[in-house]
Amino acid sequence: MSPALIAALPFIGALLPGLLIRSGRDVAAVSCATATFIALLGLCLHIPAIMAGEVITARFEWLPSLGLNANFRIDGLGLLFGILILGIGLLIIAYARYYLSRNDPAGVFYAYLMLFQGAMLGIVLSDNILLLLVFWELTSLSSFLLIGYWKHLPEGRQGARMALTVTGMGGLAMIAGMLILGNIAGSYDIGDILQAREAIQASPYYLPALLLILLGAFTKSAQFPFHFWLPHAMAAPTPVSAYLHSATMVKAGLFLMARLWPVLSGTPEWFYIVATTGLVTMVLAAWIAIFRDDLKSLLAFSTVSHLGLITMLLGFGTEAAAVAAVFHIINHATFKAALFMTAGIIDHETGTRSIARLGGLRRLMPVTFAIGTIAALSMAGIPPLNGFLSKELMLEQATHAVWQGNPWLMAAMATLGALFSVCYSLRFVWQVFFGPERDDYPHKPHDPGFGLWSAPALLAVLVVLIGLFPASMAGWLVEVSASAVTGTAQHPHLALWHGLNLPLALSAAALAGGAVLLALNRPMLAARAAIAWPDAKAIFDAITRAATCAAGFFTDRLTNGSMSRALAAFALTVVLCGLWAFSTGGWQGATRPMLPVQPVPLVGWAALMVATCCMVAFHRRRILALVLVGIIGLMVSVSFIYLSAPDLALTQISVEVVTVVLLLLALNFLPKFTVIDSRDRKRGMDAFIATVTGLGFGALAYVIMRSDFAFPSISEYMLANSYKLGGGDNVVNVILVDFRGYDTFGEITVLGIAALTIFALTETLLAGASGRRLRNWVHDSRRAGDRHPLTLVVVTRLILPISLVVGLYIFLRGHNMPGGGFVAGLVVSVALVSQYMASGFAWTQERQKINYHALIGAGVIAAGLTGIGAWFAGLPFLSSAYGYVKLPGIEEFELASAMGFDLGVFLCVVGAVMLALNSLSRIARQAGETVNLDPMDIDPSKEARR
Amino acid sequence: MELLLSSAIGMLTAAGVYLILRLRSFAVVLGMTMLSYAINLFLFSTGRLVVNAPPVLQKGVEVYTDPLPQALVLTAIVISFGMTAVVVMMALGAFLEGGDDRVDMPRADRLPGDGDA
Q1: Which keywords are on file for this protein (chain B) (predicted)?
Q2: Domain count for chain B
Q3: Does any domain span residue B110?
Q4: What secondary structure letter does DSSP report for A271?
């Protein structure tokens, strides 16, 4: 199966729970599990090839000009992480099915989970660092959604926000680092970057790139001092913690360090930054974990500690350490996911995760006890479990590491970390399962059903099997992935027994020390409680609060909430910039002759000027102002006709009609007059600003019109090729639907979004305080006695078929004559609106079945599909084709694929205009507009019958 | 002719700017409509003025006006309708929610909230 398809499968799976949202938890879980399973199967089919040393790739050009390509690769490292992500994902999907309660929205949960899975899989299968960054950000976003899944819990929301802030900031730093890296290597493809080790390490930008990339990796993998977000992310549902915060997402940082290991590692900078950070994190987090009371918090800090361990191993920069790191990634994922699931089971069955309220569960929950104990002992590094093996390898590597000339510091600190690890692991087992049974558990504990414990049990079995038979169970995976990390073939020798050596002695010391520490637990707890430790959350909150205050301070200084002040400043700035630009430019004086002035345009110009002056003078009388808007719009349309722009004239005049109707409908609920509330001085000032702006803009237009083009215009190309390439004589229409079709596609989408925004605003207005206000609305003007007059009704009925035919005609001829989708859509809208005006909204609405939302959607889809159609002919998006068709009975006519696009424009315009007007009518209904049963108020035919 | 059009553009701009500096929402909406006219005419005028030469190809005709600004303005006209509709709706909503149609934001609404969740 193609790597691209494997990466796409979880995203496809993410759609299923949303589509099947009504079918319940089982269907959602099964559909997600199916997608995950197919992806896992596809991945596993590549195992033989990867074992043979091949790298499976799939390449698609996305934005080759930016170096961003959708390239995917599966090598040993990708295989290891892919198996972890999909394999544990499968177990989590099954576990979550039984963990979530009936009241939790399961469809949403599974959709987020699959989204995360896809993003994570994308990271590990990307062969392009820009593509990797896209997936990287997606994991931050989807984990934000998952942590905040229980929206009603404030800890969930705060934890989600903190995680997003910390990992998001790291992600930003990493983008910069990756761009530098790609720049040095000359390519953004990982395959090429891995070849460029010498160039990268010799570059003066090596250190900045390293720091920025490590910032991203450390925040993601919760390394000190960014470790604090992970424990707060534990507010997430336990399946999320088990998946994201033990097995996958927090390992993304490790993955990245492993991926770039061949090019970044081996330098002193790498060793001191990475190994030291890892060591500090390992020891510090393990120490904190000893004292946590919340089970999940204990596990969270232990995860941070183990991530530190792996980071340290990668930081050593030796091949043997890389092998140990890879092996510990596998082992940690198995035992830690099992432990999180165990904690989830305990929480689920007893109602608490507080260690102080637990104890004595070994007889009450024997199955959970067995699973939890095996996993915890593995975490402690006790033979013969898998955690022991990788811990031995770690200790051995630590004994070889020399820190600032000190040969034993690393080993001593690593042993200390292992000692703490033993302590909190044993504490987990001892204080939860052993001790006397209590009678004050929140719920009566008992083992859960098979569904809940099967997934952790499977992992516990793996923990034992890998421990007993490391070479056959995990050796091959460690071998291929370590070979991929180091770039040279590795043949690690994994075995339970390495003989009596230094690591074994250190291990034994850690075990004994840990047990002693556990015995001293109570006095130590008391001692630790007496000291005030810095709380990372408090520091984080203080920083966020300070940033919010600073932002508020600056905003407050920049704007005082007065829109007119801000707009005046804007207008003056524009004028000043314009003046400056003009004074520094080199205008040579008018080069184009003026067109002679004819008497008729002069009259039109005078009408426009007078209407505009009246507009300013009488704008307080709002209805009069609307009449003046109509006059101005009409004059603008006429000037378009005169100046050879028939398409514009048609569009302007039909937009004019719908705009005025819209403003009239709104005015129904707004005051009819504007009161004077600015002082004479302000008005004088505003008039001055307006005059200056007007003069400047007019002068600019004049200068442009009197000068020749500075550069040859691309319009010549369009005029020359309109027919040849687009098959149309109307160049404006061909530009819209063909040459610049992509712009038009964006524009109709914006128009549709605007209409949907209006609809959404209306929904809000109809509910709540404004809805109540509307229900008690008292109209401030008298109602007409004859609201649906006979003449208007009859005339609009007669006009309807005619205007629809005109609309159709304008649509069809658009490619070759003035017209097209925009104009036709507006004409049809006007025809429909006039029906609403004549007989009332509700009456008309009952007699038509068009859904305007669907119309907008259909429009955008029709335009999009027409564009995609070009792909099948092997041409870029929105290339058009045309041909001539001869049908019996009518003349030969032209069919262009652009017509499908224009149809989309048409539908979208009709839908958007009608939805906007429709929304305003709904407000009128709420305000007590009565529904008439007859099309007109006074019907003479009825009078006659009576 | 150029003088007429540029003076009209200047006049419409001045009226539009004056109206958007008013303190009530409806006047601002009217001002934006005026500004739309001015800007559409301005964009159109960058193709220079030509009479009796619409950009519709015909046999034997060699001179056409510049079609590109026309295509730009055509979509701008439709979009400005969408914009006017959204702004009117927002003005209406503010009036129904707040009880008056002032555009300025009272100080109390501007200050950042307490921050949490």
Answers
A1: Cell membrane, Membrane, Transmembrane, Transmembrane helix
A2: 1
A3: no
A4: I
Structure tokens at A864: 């999009």
pLDDT over 70, % of chain B: 90
Considering only CB atoms, B17 lies closest to which of A562, A642, A694, namely A694
Q: For residue A893, what are the β-bridge partners? A: A885
Q: How far is CA A147 from CA A100, A122, A246, A299, A725, in A?
A: 14, 20, 14, 16, 53
Is the sign of the CA dihedral A96, A102, A107, A111 positive or negative? negative
Q: Is the pLDDT of residue A269 over 60?
A: yes
Candidate from A670, A694, A743 with C-beta closest to B13: A694
Structure tokens belonging to residue A482: 């370590």
Cβ of residue B43 closer than 8 Å to a chain A Cβ:
no
- With 70 as the cut, is the pLDDT of residue A247 above it? yes
Of the residues A595, A629, A642, A749, the best mutation for testing chain B's interface (the one with the most B CB atoms within 10 Å of its CB) is A595
Residues from chain B contacting residue A618 (CB–CB below 8 Å): none
Residues of A in contact with B84 (CB under 8 A): 659, 662-663
In CATH, what number is assigned to the domain containing residue B28? 1.10.287
Q: Please, which residues 2-31 of chain B have a Cβ atom closer than 8 Å to chain A?
A: 2-30
Q: Is B54–A686 a contact, with Cβ atoms under 8 angstroms apart? A: no
A491, two tokens? 């043949």
For residues B11 and B34, the answer to whether their CB atoms sit within 8 Å is no
Among the partner-chain residues B68, B75, B111, the one whose CB lies closest to the CB of A744 is B75
* Element spanning A18, H or E: helix A3-19
Task: Tell me how far apart the alpha carbons of residues A602 and A604 are, in angstroms, rounded to a whole number.
Answer: 5
What's the domain range around B95?
A: 2-50+67-104
In contact, A306 and A336? CB cutoff 8 Å? yes
CA distance from start to end of chain A = 79
DSSP class of residue A596 equals P
Q: Where are the beta strands (DSSP E) in A836-936?
A: 882-885, 893-896
Closest residue in A to B42 (Cα–Cα): A701
**Res A505 pLDDT > 70:** yes
Q: How far apart are CA A651 and CA A649, in angstroms?
A: 5
Does B13 sit within 8 Å of A693, measured CB to CB?
A: yes
Asked if residue A316 lies in contact with residue A360, where contact means CB atoms within 8 angstroms, the answer is no
Rg (CA), chain B: 20
Of A133, A102, A261, nearest to A193 by C-alpha is A261
SS3 state at A70:
strand
B62 touches chain A (CB under 8 A): no
Q: B23: which chain A residues are within 8 Å (Cβ-Cβ)? A: 564, 677-678
| pLDDT score recorded for residue B116 | 40
Judged by CB atoms closer than 8 Å, whether chains meet at B17 and A690 is answered as yes
Per CB-CB distance under 8 Å, the chain A contacts of B3 are 594, 702
Average pLDDT of A814-830? 89
In a domain, B57, yes or no: no
Q: Does B51 touch chain A (CB under 8 A)?
A: yes
CB contact under 8 A, B10 and A695: yes
Half-sphere exposure in the Cβ direction for A518 (13 Å, CA): 20
Distance (Å) from the C-alpha of residue B90 to the closest C-alpha of chain A?
A: 8
Give a yes or no: residue B113 inside a domain.
no
Q: What is the ipTM of this complex?
A: 0.93
What would the mean pLDDT of A498-510 be, rounded to a whole number? 82
Dist CA A119 CA A141 (whole Å): 10
Q: Indicate whether B90 belongs to any domain.
A: yes
Question: How many CB atoms sit inside 10 A of residue A468's CB?
Answer: 14
Mean pLDDT along residues A497-524: 82
Alpha-carbon distance values, A630 to A638, A827, B76 (Å): 12, 17, 18
Give the pLDDT confidence of A180-232 residue by residue, as tens digits: 999 999 889 998 899 888 889 999 999 999 999 999 999 999 998 888 888 88
Domain boundaries, chain A: 265-536, 730-946
Element at A56 (helix H, strand E):
strand A56-63
